[in-house]
Amino acid sequence: MAGITLGRTLLLCTLLLWGFQVCCGAITVKVSPKVEVNRGDTAKLPCEYSGTSLDDIVVTWYITEEESDQRKRVAYRKTSGHHESDPESPLFGQVSISEDFTLTVTSVKPSNQLTFYCEVTAGKDGSGEASTKLEVFVAPQKPEIKKPSSQAISVGASSSSEIGTCTTMNGFPAPRIIWFKDNMPLPEVKDKKENTYMVPSTVKEASGLFTIKSVLYMKPTKADKDSLFHCTVEYSLAGEQNKNIQMKSEPMKIELHYPFEHVMFDLLNATDVKEGDDVTLKCATDGNPQPFFDFYKQVQNEAKKMEGAEGLLTLKSVKRTDSGNYTCIATDFELDEKSAYKILVVNYIDQMSVTPADPKSVKLGDKVEWQCKTKASKPHTVQWKKGSTVLSQDGTLSIESVTYENAGEYVCVGAVSDVPGLTAQASVNLTVTGQPQIENPAFGEVTKEGEEVTLKCSAYGYPSPKFTWKPSAKETISREDNKIVSTATFEATADIMAKGVTCEVSNEYGTDSKTLFVKVKRADKQQGGPSAVVVAVVVCVLLLLLLVSLIYFLSKKTTMCSKKDKQEPASSNVNDIVVEMKSDKANEEAGLLNKKVSTEQ
Ligand SMILES: *[C@@H]1O[C@H](CO)[C@@H](O)[C@H](O)[C@H]1NC(C)=O
Ligand SMILES: *[C@@H]1O[C@H](CO)[C@@H](O)[C@H](O)[C@H]1NC(C)=O
Ligand SMILES: *[C@@H]1O[C@H](CO)[C@@H](O)[C@H](O)[C@H]1NC(C)=O
What we know:
Layout: H1 2-23, E1 28-30, E2 34-38, E3 43-45, E4 48-50, E5 58-64, E6 71-78, E7 83-85, E8 95-97, E9 103-105, E10 115-121, E11 127-137, E12 144-146, E13 153-154, E14 161-171, E15 176-181, E16 184-185, E17 197-204, E18 210-218, E19 228-235, E20 245-248, E21 252-253, E22 256-257, E23 263-267, E24 273-274, E25 279-285, E26 292-299, E27 302-306, E28 312-315, E29 324-331, E30 337-344, E31 346-347, E32 353-355, E33 360-363, E34 368-373, E35 381-386, E36 389-392, E37 396-399, E38 408-415, E39 423-438, E40 444-446, E41 452-462, E42 466-470, E43 475-480, E44 483-491, H2 494-499, E45 501-507, E46 510-516, E47 518-520, H3 523-567, H4 574-600
Parallel strand pairs: 2-11, 13-22, 24-31, 33-39, 40-47
Antiparallel strand pairs: 1-4, 3-9, 5-6, 5-10, 6-7, 8-9, 10-11, 12-14, 14-18, 15-16, 15-19, 17-18, 19-20, 19-21, 23-25, 25-28, 26-27, 26-29, 29-30, 32-34, 34-37, 35-36, 35-38, 38-39, 39-41, 41-44, 42-45, 43-44, 45-46
Helix pairs in contact: 3-4
The site of one 2-acetamido-2-deoxy-beta-D-glucopyranose has 3 residues, from loops.
Pfam families: C2-set_2, Ig_3, V-set
Domain Ig-like: 25-135, 143-246, 259-345, 350-429, 436-517
Organism: Fundulus heteroclitus
């Protein structure tokens, strides 16, 4: 029963289809159902047919007008070759129909997005048609995000606040806007009863392109204070691979107002404050914007008002008396007060006090001692220094038996190690008095007798010693560190060459004298110096070469021996023979050496 019914249905369907074909002619027309093209490009709408062998065929392309839904001819072509495009059609000038009946549309614009019909008429064989949709694409401009013109957004408002507007212009077809908060997409919500929703709008421009807007509304919380918002526009272009392209706007931060919960009051930069510093105390809250601040200093149970500005309290060149308890009071819009305090400690170090304070004059060999101390707000060090040398760490500087080298300036440095830069220093001068001492003098040198020679005599001693040259000469006095130097010029007479010159020094504590000799510097001596060096270098090099060759010879001998041992199983080879000969010789030598050793024993 069921089989028969199915058979009947199939037969009916076949009859119907056959009937349809007859009714519409036997011509089959084939077109692409859809042709995608970007604005400005050229679209090709192919049209093929089958089912006739007649020569006289007309292929006509139509469009349907958007409003009237009526067909309008665009162009036609006969197989004879005659073709024309309709001057009244909105596509006139843009279209042409080629020999294979393809309709070409140049410089495509959004208004060309239409349904095109290709109709084939073949006389007695009837006619056929098919439709193709031309889809036009235009990339929109980069989306722009704008803050609302009204002032900042407040946390805790009763209704959602406008966060921003995202606009993208001149796209086709109308693209889509997606909002993001911190790079997370926000679901598209249009219900204004929700906390977060978007109000979209679309404008069709005269050009046929679409400008899309989306206004985002939210009830932000304090957590959103640093949130970054952006929007993307999602659009498509011609071609399967060019779908759902996303283009990002610049990010936007919102100006969010929220009340403060805590007040912070602290030093802006420094951690350790010392006398003379400029100190800035900064008061801030965790709210936005910052409220008004008042500053006070606690002075003997009384709050003394201080002048601050925009949360900063600046104290110029602070003194130890500026130490104390400072308070900052923040007052919010509801006149609620909250405060914070900061104990300011101004570190200090007093001047170094040195006893005895006067410059000291000590006799050569006597003892000298100084004490140095100070007071500071924190533990501190005291060092005695001469130049860069540290002599003592405990404030006492004592020298058991002074020498002339001990004379000079001593500096006592106090420092609070916890506070960089908090130092003080004082200096004392030590003068060592005593009989003069002449430093061992250098020889004077002349190239020949009778020439002039300049001699130097340098001596320690305080008070500054007087110099006496024998034979007498005109001297020039200069100072070098603790020494006094007398420089005099003589004619190198035979007498001076033989006996030298005497330099005598004296002050109230005694005298000293030394003889300065004058020598003739020999010309060959000057050459002899360097030539001797050359000879020495040559000898050294030769010895080294000898040593190297010896080591080389010995090492070769040992490697040959080991090589022979290793290579014994290998087959004969010219190199092997040479090696064996050599090693035999080496063995002989070794034997000889052994013999020698044994005879010696
Ligand atoms: C704090 O220190 C920074 C550099 O560390 C400096 O640029 C700034 O000027 C300082 N501020 C004050 C108020 O001293
Ligand atoms: C500093 O003063 C404030 C009041 O101005 C007070 O509450 C606080 O206890 C004081 N701090 C100290 C350590 O004395
Ligand atoms: C110590 O002597 C130097 C010069 O040698 C001088 O500049 C300095 O002022 C003196 N110091 C004292 C404390 O007298």
